[in-house]
Each structure stands twice: as C-alpha cells, then as structure tokens.
Amino acid sequence: MIADILADTKSRMDRAVEAAKEDFSTVRTGRANPQLFQKVMVEYYGTPTPLAQLASLNAVEARTLVVTPYDKSALRGIEQAIRDMPNLGANPTNDGNLIRITMPELTAERRKEYVKLVKSKGEDAKVHVRGIRRKSKDELDALKGEVSDDDLARAEKELDGITKTHVDLIDEALKRKEAELLEV
Q1: What is the pLDDT of residues 124-156, one digit of tens each?
Q2: Residues in Cβ contact with 57 at an 8 Å cutoff, skipping those fewer than 6 apart
C-alpha cells in the first residue's frame, strides 16, 4: 500500500517536472523556435484550436519562423492569435499563403523580464510538487491504524526525498533556462 502511494507520487511529480520544462520552453530566447508557439490557441470556426493542429512551423533563419497553414482560410485567425500572444513581441506578416514571423532582438531589460517570468513559472511548479507531496502525506496518514509507525516514518522520509529530488530538478531546469535567456 505504501509502495503504491510512493510510486504514484513519483510519477505525478515526474509529470509536474516535465510540464515545468515545457512551460520554460515557451519563454523565448534570442532564437526563433517553433516551441515558442506551442501554447498559441487560434479561434478556428468558433473553437480554440492549438496552432500545431492548423499549421506547420519551420525555423528558416535564426530569428525567422514560417507558419504554413493547412487551411488558407485560417490565415487571419493564426496571424491574430500570434499577434495577441503575450511575452513574444512577435509581429507576423501575412503574404496570403504563409505567415513570416521575425523575432525582435532581445534587449537586456527584456531578458531580465523573461528571467523573472521563468522564475515565477518555476516557483509555480515547485508549489505544485509540494501540493502533490501534501496529498500523498494525507494518504499515508490515513493508513495510520493499518501499518506500523516505523513504516509510516520511513515512508514519510522517502516522500521527502522524492520531493527534494523533484524540486532540485525544477531548480536545475530553471538555472539552465536562466543562463540561456541571459546569453547574448
């Protein structure tokens, strides 16, 4: 029973760390990267649809992306969704067949803003991991009459170790992203 709770906790924390890394990848650096547009939702026939389902994204140069829609009628919606996306600073140009996005150079001030944003996202991810820990601790406490106190103490110690490992993984990913953002 304890092993099941700990295994479930570990897998949920692993998913939380992966989600944090994906979230970090959506914050742009000096290079154009299709992952920046992962979370862009386009209004397509009245339904918010992920950009990746409506178009292909290709990095043609260091700071230029080309968006080729599968359906030409979605061009305007895609262009508007990209323009409205916060934290990108991208200005798309539409030539009737595809959309070119040239990413502006990052100023030192803008880089610092992105670092703050990434730190905020990292803190949110750590709070999520701690929430998973709290829920698992409650599940362990519910077993109090069924298993020995020594087993519970051992399980709590292991739970703390799993939590620390995952928080450290988030911190490590945060440091890498911060270094990438501050790199000129």
Answers
A1: 999 999 999 999 999 999 998 898 989 999 999
A2: 34, 37, 51, 65, 66, 67
Q: Which pLDDT tens digit goes with each residue over 7-58?
A: 999 999 999 999 999 888 877 666 677 777 777 889 988 899 998 899 998 8
The Cα-based distances of 47 to 35, 36, 68, 95, 99 in angstroms read 22, 21, 20, 24, 21
Cα within 13 Å of Cα(83), Cβ side: 13
Report d(CA 119, CA 111) in Å as an integer.
12
Prediction pTM value: 0.69
Q: Collapse the DSSP code of 66 into the 3-class scheme (helix H, G, I; strand E, B; otherwise coil) and give the result.
A: strand
**Nearest of 106, 39, 43, 28 to residue 79 by alpha carbon:** 43
Report how far residue 168's alpha carbon sits from residue 81's, in angstroms, rounded to the nearest whole number: 35
Residue 91 burial (CB count, 10 A): 13
CB atoms within 10 A of CB 156: 16
Strands 91-94 vs 64-69: parallel, antiparallel or unpaired: unpaired
